[in-house]
Amino acid sequence: MEKKKRFIDKIWYGTGAIGLDLSYGMFYNFLNKYLTDVLQLKANFLLLLTPIARIWDGINDPMMGTIVDNTHTKMGKYRPWILRGALLNAVVLALLFNNPGIPTAGVWIYIYIAVLYVGWGMTNTLADIPYWSMVPSFTTDPKERSIIATIARTFSGFGQGVITIGAPLLMKFISTTEALNDKGEMVKVWDGKSFSVISLLAAAGLVFFACLSVFKTKETVVTQAKEKFSFKKIFNVAKNNDQLRIFMLFAMISNAGFYMLSGVGVYFFDVCVGNADRQGLFSAFGAVGAIVGLAVIPVGLKFTSRRRIYQFSLLLAALGFCGMLFAYKVADSQMLLNVFVLIVQIGTAAMFVSQTVFLADIVDYGEVKMGFRAESVTFSMKGFLQKMAYTVQTIILFAGIYFTGYDSELHNNNPAAVKTSFELMMTVLPAVFMLVSFLVFTFGFKLHGEYMEEITRQVSEAKEKRLAAQADGEKESV
Fold it and tell me: Which of 134, 150, 160 has the alpha carbon at shortest distance from 214?
């Protein structure tokens, strides 16, 4: 009989997600604004940088997954990498938002940012892949996995909320730069000092919560990989696990839709709404929605399947984005805009939890189909698809900035074409992405119902046989 983890152990594990999302939040929500407005980097350079960084991630992420799978230390195979990755990622994050004095008009600032941009992805991989790879190692019970993933996503959402709500509020006290808002009033706007201070706080939080999770969590290692790193193994996992490929497609599309919201938001409120102060309340409503969304799965499972819940989450998010467009363009209501982002976040929160559990199911499916488990290689795809989704968002964002003539010094006085592009990127495109993802998932993903129950049964039986063989071996040695 498999022993369930104590609730407090699940809590300690979940705290690590707070730190990871403090770093995520700074990178995904505010880095683009920092690069275009503070460092004044050219949009065409940024259009090239993100795809190049993702090409390397395509090699680096699964490589790291295989290394984790083959790690064996007294601390286990996951926790040492979480700690190392968090420490290095914190250093890189702080350097990204703190120019050491390099002139912004020369080539060296571009080299500096390019190296750190790629470095953030690499160091994030060191911590992120082993962290989320621990989920299937805790238990083979799908319900337990859902609980563990939900708790981790709860803390993850908290970390995101601290950044998205706290950063705009702190900016008022830290920034020394002002600009006219939509009412003709002088208000604080993001400047180099505010980015610098908040990034340092996020870096410190990343290290603190990583240490808390690492030193309070005990690993339950189901299997220990024996193979060394091999691109052939990575290729075979991706080639032979058709459900992993389908997952990568529908998850990347929906995640790109979510990142449009987080990445474009700071531009939207500055340029379209004309008042960056309103982003704080908007983000607060979103954070409430993210918390409520975490209850969708445990409550929904009492009435329907995980598959139906996931489909519902995508449609709810699409509805919320359409509502945001109505609130901004037709109703001209900030409060209604806040209500609809709450709806969006309810959907996306449930979506992200489901995706984590789907990956755990994909690991089991891979074991049955290929004859071996590949937790970290499979979960490395989660980090990679998130970065690919961010790249899609970034390419669209910088293309809009480049072709419409965005000027960071004009704020609310930018041309109409600039405002229209940000409006579309904030509302219409995310809704389209959610609907496309819904179709791919509905017609391509088959790990549900009786088929998934049979896979879980086979994995449990295989585990029991391994444990029995191990016990017999220990008796013979005695």
Answer: 134
DSSP string, 141-173: -HHHHHHHHHHHHHHHHHHHHHHHHHHHHHHHH
pLDDT digits (tens, 9 = 90+) for 271-301: 998 887 788 889 889 989 988 988 887 888 8
Neighbours of 418 (CB within 10 A): 21
Backbone angles phi, psi at 29, to 5 degrees: -95, -35
Distances (CA, A) of 321 to 278, 300, 391, 425: 18, 22, 20, 10
Closest among 267, 270, 259, 255 to 441, alpha carbons compared: 255
Our count of domains for the chain comes to 1
Q: At a CB cut-off of 8 Å and minimum separation 6, what does 41 contact?
A: 35, 104, 109, 110, 113
If you ran DSSP here, which 8-state letter would residue 274 be given?
S
Residue given tokens 């982003």 in the structure block: 279
The residue segments making up the domain with residue 96 are 7-219+229-466
> Tokens 């180099």, residue?
192
Decide if 1 is inside a domain. Answer: no
Q: Are strands 178-180 and 186-188 parallel, antiparallel or unpaired?
A: antiparallel
> Tell me, what CATH number does 59's domain have?
1.20.1250.20
At 414, the pLDDT band (50, 70, 90 cuts) reads very high
Bridge partners, residue 187, by sequence: 179
Give the CA radius of gyration of the chain: 22
* Side-chain-side CA neighbours of residue 473 (13 Å): 6
Instruction: Give the predicted TM-score (pTM) of the model.
Output: 0.78
DSSP state of 104: T
Distance, in Å, from the CA atom of 408 to the CA atom of 338, rounded to the nearest integer, reads 25
